[in-house]
Amino acid sequence: MGPGAPGVSGSGADLRQRLLRKYAEKGLLVMTVVDVNVDDVIVALFEVRLLLHLMRRSRTWRNTGKLLFVRRVNRMSMRVYGRPATSWLRYAKNLDNDWVNKSVALVKRFMARSSVVVIEDLDPQRLREKLRSKDPEKAYLFSTWPVAKILRRIRAVAERAGKLLVVPPNYTSSICIKCLTLMEHDEGKWSRLRCPKCGFREDRDHVAVWNLAKSALVVLGFHYLDTYLGRSIKAYKEAVDALTPALTRALSQGPEPGPGVSEEGGEASSPEPSLSSRPARGDLGEGANEPSSDDDLGSQRGPVQ
Asked: CATH: 1.10.1060, 1.20.1440, 3.30.70, 3.30.420. Which one for 12-251?
């Protein structure tokens, strides 16, 4: 594979052979794809036949409104009484744990219908650095321990079932799923992407799950097939390899150059937060939220372009 190409971790070689054998015998492969972010988890179910179809996707959210409320209550407690609002902080932590449990339960429901669970090899700290580049205040508000816990639990559940397939996080939320061009932020919005070539607009996380599914098929070797699907996956792999330098720059910063990344691509020292954004002693620090109910976006189907 080319530079930056996805790879298989752990006992992925055995899993790859088993999945290819199943696809060869039945002409069908069902995948659960998981995209984990600091404020939401999106889970998608893909069906691989002659084409790649999105069957269903759902999402769980962290409730930023309740996080902000708990933070205000705690700051008032520190200012008036000189001590943290312990019960409110415990409430916020419970909300985050509830989000973790709902996210893992959602993955388990999807996993029961699939042969493989595809997840990114994410570094929670890297997610926070990317968040800092787009919203420094929120970066100090959010903690990354729930993200690490979600990743750890999902990987453990999938590994016990013999269905875990780990792919690198690079190049997933940046390539247009229609024409394979590097996408841009739509009107400066981090969560929306627009393709400068074909004009395609979509939610960043929806683009990510499609490209994660394609990356998984590259790892499984589908780009060697002499079929429409194989040629589509091969074109995706070639686009990833060709865009690697540009994507490396794009993924190292947000919509605007971030304070945590130097021009040379290395880590730069971050400026000290202002008193208004720095958590007080005993504050949430990076906070905790509750998830909303699963946002089932319904069944959608479409071929790989």
From this structure: 3.30.420
